[in-house]
Amino acid sequence: MKKVFVKSYGCQMNVYDAERMTDLLATEGYSETKAMEEADLVILNTCHIREKAADKVYSELGRVRELKEEREAQGRETKIVVAGCVAQAEGKEILRRQTAVDVVVGPQNYHHLPDLLKRSKAERLVDTEFPIEDKFDHLPALQKSRIQSRGVTAFLTIQEGCDKFCTFCVVPYTRGAEVSRPVARILDEAMRLADAGVRELTLIGQNVNAYHGEGPDGSSWTLGRLLRRLAEVPGIARLRYMTSHPRDMDDELILAHGDLPALMPYLHLPVQSGSDRILDAMNRKHTSDEYRRLIERIRKRQPDLALSSDFIVGFPGETDAEFEETMRLVADVGFAMSFTFKYSPRPGTPAAELATQVSEEVKSMRLARLQNLLETQRQAFNHGTVGQTLDVLLEKPGRHPGQIAGKSPYLQPVQFESDAHQIGEIVTVRIVRAGSNSLFAELIGTGDKVAA
Ligand code: 5AD
Ligand code: SF4
């Protein structure tokens, strides 16, 4: 049997795509390996969001090339595929820069992989034209055993692409225009996942709350409506979604946060900056006060909400005073979790052309200060759950024998002692201690009996 090794970089969309590629290649006789040396096919599923991520691809390709040469010396062939967003953005350039690469395939084209691999015997290929057909129609249905090997939580892509054109971001160029999958397809996938024991679905999309897929009745469904329908799927106990844009938090979605118990009280809602001038230059289409008011509205419906965000420091032209406005917004709103980035100029995006680039030194100083504040908030949030009674979805054995590990509704890793509980169960625990990355708990009761 041939073996495939897939390495995925970047976001959850890539994690999902990597799984679907291995599912597809399984039907072509490839089994997955975690050891690159034994792979007949190496796929790098790349990320283009920041320069560092994109650069990693070429250093990794250097290593893969050496491996290919070593295997060749032993008479074994290795195919190298570059997939994902660097493939989409750089296309032919990758073949030019790294001669060991056989195939370059974009995120909307990987359903062509079996054909591309066959054709790659004769020539090196690039497939990055956005296809007319939908790749999801050409991917095999999810197999129960494959789902089970991935655990009780799953990502489900419901939407791809982005029409927002934030001036720093490559996504609208690499992933293309916004497309929502039809409700029936999503439901079918959700039912297959649930049937194989999945308890928690994270609906994913580059702009997931802009979802507007076609419903069974022919009308366009919002994310709020879709979430309500998915909450009815037997076995599915928890729903999450990411990543959202503040402009697309409509009333139906906010209402769902208040009255849909399966929808976890956790929201990743990137704000990027607290300065109105920078938000405008980023083309985010909202002010910092609009963000504050939006959070207030959501918290009114769901007072228990844990909030997370992405931030960019050192966007071109960002002054010290404007950075302080980001610090103030963070202090005002309070985040349970966050991701912080130094602005990275991306080729082809409007902000990369601006003459007012901020120095690395200033970016580093701002990043450190912001991270410090956000880390204090994260720790405070985690410590605030000590003494609370929370439901935990059990995901895997804990670090030590006799321990079991899962996640709280707020996505915090939780560990406790138990040998009587099964992965997939939801149990009620009391949090007794907060470590720096996980919470420690004692068991109170089993809140849920639908375990797979
Ligand atoms: N530089 C730095 N961070 C970026 N992001 C997107 N593009 C860039 C860039 N050019 C960040 C944003 C986004 C997250 C996925 O990545 O914060 O929300
Ligand atoms: Fe990029 Fe903005 Fe679209 Fe998010 S909303 S993917 S940051 S362009």
How would you describe what is shown here?
Keywords: 4Fe-4S, Cytoplasm, Iron, Iron-sulfur, Metal-binding, S-adenosyl-L-methionine, Transferase, tRNA processing. It catalyses: N(6)-dimethylallyladenosine(37) in tRNA + (sulfur carrier)-SH + AH2 + 2 S-adenosyl-L-methionine = 2-methylsulfanyl-N(6)-dimethylallyladenosine(37) in tRNA + (sulfur carrier)-H + 5'-deoxyadenosine + L-methionine + A + S-adenosyl-L-homocysteine + 2 H(+). GO terms for molecular function: 4 iron, 4 sulfur cluster binding; metal ion binding; tRNA-2-methylthio-N(6)-dimethylallyladenosine(37) synthase activity. It is an enzyme of class 2 (transferase). This protein has helices spanning 12-26, 51-73, 84-90, 92-97, 113-119, 144-148, 171-174, 183-195, 223-230, 251-259, 276-281, 288-301, 320-333, 360-384; strands spanning 2-8, 30-32, 41-46, 79-83, 103-105, 125-127, 153-157, 159-160, 179-180, 200-204, 238-242, 266-268, 306-313, 337-342, 389-397, 403-407, 413-417, 426-434, 439-446. It is α/β, with parallel strands linked by helices and 452 residues long. It has 3 domains: 2-127, Methylthiotransferase, N-terminal domain (Rossmann fold, 3-Layer(aba) Sandwich), CATH 3.40.50; 135-384, Alpha-Beta Horseshoe (pyruvate-formate lyase- activating enzyme); 389-448, Beta Barrel (OB fold (Dihydrolipoamide Acetyltransferase, E2P)), CATH 2.40.50.140. It has a 6-stranded parallel β-sheet with strand order 2-1-3-4-5-6, sandwiched between helices. Strand 15 and strand 16 form a beta hairpin. Helix 9 packs parallel to helix 10, helix 10 (251-259) runs parallel beside helix 12 and helix 13 (320-333) packs parallel to helix 14 (360-384). The mean pLDDT is 95.
